[in-house]
Design a protein that fits this description.
Strand 2 and strand 3 (72-79) form a beta hairpin. Helix content is 53%, strand content 20%. The chain is built from 4 helices and 4 strands. It has a 4-stranded antiparallel β-sheet with strand order 3-2-1-4. The longest helix is centred in the first third of the chain and has 30 residues, at 2-31. It has helices spanning 2-31, 37-44, 85-93, 100-111; strands at 52-57, 60-64, 72-79, 95-97. It is α+β, with helices and mostly antiparallel strands. It is rod-shaped, with a radius of gyration of 23 Å.
C-alpha cells in the first residue's frame, strides 16, 4: 500500500513539474517574441515617403536621412541592447519615420 502511495505521489509531482516548466517556457516565449509583424508593417508602409530612418548602429539607435543608411544624422544615447527584443528586431530591419514629430515620439518611446 505504501509503495502505491509513493508511486502515485511521484507521478503527481512529475506532472506538476512538467506543467510548471511548460508554463515558464510559454511566458518566456511571449516575452521574447521577435519582429512584431503587425506593428512593423504599419511603419514599413510609409517607407516610400519617410523623411527619416531609425536603425541600430554600433550598439546605439541612430537616425539616418536615407533608407540606404549611409547618411547618419544623429547617433542617440539609446543603447540597442537595453531595448526589448521586438524593438531590436525592428531596428535591425530599419524603421521608416514619416516626419520629425513621429521621429521625436519614437525616440522618446525607445528611450523610456
Amino acid at each position: 500500500m505504501i509503495k502505491l502511495k509513493i508511486t502515485l505521489l511521484c507521478l503527481l509531482l512529475s506532472g506538476a513539474l512538467y506543467s510548471g516548466a511548460m508554463a515558464i517556457e510559454k511566458v518566456n516565449g511571449l516575452r521574447n517574441s521577435a519582429l512584431p509583424k503587425e506593428v512593423y508593417s504599419s511603419y514599413s508602409a510609409q517607407s516610400e515617403t519617410a523623411e527619416y530612418y531609425l536603425k541600430s548602429s554600433s550598439g546605439f539607435v541612430t537616425v539616418f536621412k536615407d533608407r540606404n543608411f549611409k547618411t547618419a544624422l544623429r547617433v542617440t544615447e539609446i543603447e540597442s541592447d537595453s531595448l526589448r527584443k521586438a524593438d531590436r528586431a525592428m531596428l535591425e530591419k530599419g524603421i521608416p519615420v514619416r516626419d520629425r514629430k513621429q521621429l521625436l515620439q519614437l525616440l522618446e518611446d525607445l528611450g523610456s
